[in-house]
Design a protein that fits this description.
By secondary structure, the protein is mainly alpha-helical. The chain contains four helices and two strands; from the N terminus they run ααααββ. A hairpin with a 4-residue loop joins β1 and β2. The longest helix is centred in the middle third of the chain and has 29 residues. The mean pLDDT is 90.
Length: 119
């Protein structure tokens, strides 16, 4: 696709985009807020780990704990807005992982016993 300039690209991308075609309802706005919020907080968790691994700074477990708590707050808000609890999410994740990796981790081969039922 040689010769594509920014103006043509924008026109083509707008033709393929649903952005701005439908207003968000209140629930969608909250999900957007919580989804964006969780990524920001997860970034703060990652930043603390990056400082430890690559900047030689000591790990401040109290800061890391607080940032993980912020991530959990957003997770709980998302679950609340879709009618589920953290416990239900834990159970659903456990069932998904048990189905996908019934044999768990094999330390000898350093592989999961992978049997993804989605395939």
């Amino acid at each position: 696709m040689s010769g594509l300039n920014p103006t043509d690209y924008r026109a083509r991308s707008l033709a393929r985009s649903r952005q701005g075609t439908e207003p968000l309802d209140a629930r969608q706005r909250l999900l957007a807020l919580y989804g964006l919020g969780i990524t920001g907080e997860a970034g703060e968790v990652a930043d603390e780990i990056k400082k430890l691994l690559f900047h030689g700074k000591p790990l401040d477990v109290k800061i890391l704990l607080a940032e993980c708590g912020d991530v959990l707050w957003y997770i709980d808000r998302i679950l609340l807005s879709i009618g589920y609890t953290i416990e239900e999410a834990l159970l659903a994740n456990d069932a998904k992982l048990a189905d996908r990796y019934p044999g768990g981790w094999d330390a000898a081969t350093k592989h999961y016993d992978h049997q993804d039922s989605r395939s």
